[in-house]
Design a protein that fits this description.
Elements (H helix, E strand, L loop, with lengths): L5 H45 L1
């Protein structure tokens, strides 16, 4: 039988941490993108309504 070492567990946890960070970054970028769209959209609407 083979015995697992602690390095396998740390490699797995590092991979899962990287995956979590990647997912969080992706969600954050999507949130910021939608906020930027909303801001730019409201500016164009107010400019169109003034005319």
């Amino acid at each position: 039988m083979t015995k697992k070492t602690g390095t396998d567990k740390s490699a797995d946890s590092a991979k899962s941490r990287e995956d979590r960070l990647k997912a969080a970054l992706k969600a954050n970028m999507a949130k910021r993108k939608s906020q930027a769209r909303a801001r730019s959209g409201s500016k164009t609407e107010t400019a169109n309504n003034k005319g």
